[in-house]
Amino acid sequence: MTTRGLILGIVVAIACVIVIVAYTERGTAEPPPLPSAGLTEQAAFAELVRTEQHVLRDAIASGDPALYPTVYYNDPTVKMHPDYEYSLSLHGDEARATLATLSGGLIGATDGYLTARIASLIYGERNTAAWESAIATAEAAGRQPTIDDLPDGFVPMERVTADRWIEPEYHLFDVRAAGDRGSAKVAFGPPEAGGQILSYEFERVEGRWYVSYSESSWSQGDPDWKP
Predict the structure, then answer these.
(1) Which tops the pLDDT comparison, 203 or 31?
(2) For residues 57 and 82, what is the distance between their CA atoms, to the nearest angstrom?
(3) Over the stretch 182-226, which tens digit does the pLDDT of each residue have?
(4) C-beta of residue 184 within 8 angstroms of C-beta of residue 45
(5) How much of the chain is in helix, strand and coil states, percent to nearest 5?
(6) CB within 8 A of 40, min separation 6: which ones?
(7) Complete DSSP assignment for 45-66
(8) Is 223 helix (H, G, I), strand (E, B) or coil?
(9) In this prediction, what percent of the chain has a pLDDT beyond 90?
């Protein structure tokens, strides 16, 4: 074998090792998808998503997370988006104290999606109140408010009221379940049309399904979707 051929063989071998290691690491980090859910789980998840959206709407409008434990659950193994971690870093202590006063469902761990949802609600309330104060101050001075009227670290947020809520269409697809775990994607319109997609994770605890996580993304549409 020539020197060139030997070098080429070594390069190919190294490349194969890298691919194998990368595939192994990816396989370790990403468990295989759950099997397709049965009709019973599909119906349960559809009802839970609808209920969760109503609970979320009422909480955002009122600032009261009293019903959060009826739909959300703290699973400490769930990896959350950095935005939720940021809300916890700012308002985690207050969220945990609030959670200690709530009932209506099983809480789970100290931290998780339930606690993060409460922290996010507090974050929204603080920013909304600050922006309303900035608007009032600016109007009193006869000018339009700007972001400079806010304290450092705050962002403009408008208050959401229940009368602005429009009941969307809920389309669940890619619904999966095994044992006490489940998942689904939810589109607020035909999935083939594209738009916002919510990816849900569900967990059944003592016979009751909860939302253990959800995250929003944007889809260009799924032409293969069938109702």
Answers:
(1) 203
(2) 22
(3) 999 999 877 676 678 999 999 999 999 999 999 998 876 655 555
(4) yes
(5) 50, 20, 35
(6) none
(7) HHHHHHHHHHHHHHHHHHS--T
(8) coil
(9) 66
> What are the domain boundaries of the chain?
40-219
Give Cβ neighbours of residue 22 (< 8 Å, ≥ 6 apart).
none
Instruction: Select from 90, 79, 100 the least CA-distant residue to 31.
Output: 79
In the numeric block, the tokens 């009032």 are attached to: 136
pLDDT per residue as tens digits for the range 33-68: 899 999 999 999 999 999 999 999 999 999 999 999
Question: Please, what is the average pLDDT of the chain?
Answer: 84
For tokens 């939720």, the residue is: 84
The label of the residue with tokens 């229940």 reads: 162
pLDDT in tens, 116-174: 999 999 999 999 999 999 999 999 999 999 989 898 888 888 888 877 777 888 899 99
- What's the CATH class of domain 40-219? alpha beta
Nearest Cα neighbor of 51 from 205, 190, 211, 212 is 211
Q: What are the Cα distances from residue 129, in Å, to 48, 97, 108, 135, 227?
A: 31, 21, 31, 10, 42
Cβ-proximal residues to 49 (8 Å cutoff; 6+ apart), any chain = 170, 172, 184, 186, 198, 200, 211
Report yes or no: 183 and 199 within 8 Å, Cβ to Cβ: yes
One-letter amino acid at 50 equals R
Distances 60 to 29, 40, 125, 193 between C-alpha atoms, Å:
34, 30, 8, 28
167 secondary structure, DSSP code: P
